[in-house]
From TrEMBL:
Keywords: Glycosyltransferase, Transferase
Domain of life: Bacteria
A Pfam family annotated for this UniProt entry: Glyco_transf_10
Species annotation: Brunnivagina elsteri CCALA 953
SUPFAM superfamilies: UDP-Glycosyltransferase/glycogen phosphorylase (SSF53756)
Fucosyltransferase C-terminal domain location: 153-269
Name of the protein described by the UniProt record: Glycosyltransferase
Keyword Cell wall biogenesis/degradation annotated: no
A GO MF label: alpha-(1->3)-fucosyltransferase activity
Amino acid sequence: MKTKTVGMISSYRGINQEVDWLWLQTPESFGHWKNIQMYAPATEPDFLIMYQFDFSPPPQPKSRLDWFRKKQKQSESDITSLLHSVPKERIIYLLREPPLDEVVEVNKLNYQEAQKYCGYISGPDDFAPNPDYMPAIWYLSNSFRDLDQMPPPEKKAACSWITSGINRSANHQRRLEFLKALKSSDVEFDLFGQNLPEWSKARGAIGGKWYGMSPYYYNLSIENYADNDWYVSEKLWDSLLAWCLPIYYGGSAADKLLPPGSFLRLPSLDEKGIAYIKEVTATPDAWYEAKDAIAEARQVILHKLNLLNWLSEFTDKF
């Protein structure tokens, strides 16, 4: 069977488009997964994925929506030159960001533009032409084979949270308010992340999330958005792949994708939620009870939900 090459273009700053990032998502060398090779800078790919691609540059510092509308006049030839003559039916548009109120109109415009160039368009919201869960990517520096074969690492502490001080949306601000309340409580947890306020007393930023998760029984996995049936992000995948039991705040998508018992539901971002975290993290009992479910969930993430597996299954239709 001929190997099909999949190229990528993206506006998403969370992705390192150097080729080694892609290779961490597969056990094979050079980005191979079954019948495909994922090679972001390919000049003559068989398929192309436009991953969180903005058809106009992001705003600096103006309103993103106003900027988008002004830049919509960007000539089609500029976009077409990025597509490497891939037929429309073999071009995929995947939007990965949640439909926050601040960006919904921009997301809709991106979907509208994508229909000019792409045969398949999807995102984790009801506005997408094909609403669907995001294929899984993760932000652990471990090799795929290590993640796939490793036993649970030694657990030395109760709970961690890796987050950031971003406060540009109401949802971000709500998360920071919960963080402040949690820090004011007597719940013991270690906090890591970038640009966090001084009052948070964070342990600092970490380059590899593995080191802020793997020594802990529990991890707080709190989404920026929890209001639909589609959105679930790497916050949950990273936590499980590090053999944590996630205490998860998010929408219902996770329940449909992962085995029962592989994560816990944080009931709310308030005093009730803080009391729940305190009760669960007081002992490692819940982690031991969930260990088999965590192991099963890790295999689902690595082999089924994986972006490369999703792309392989997509290309099989041709």
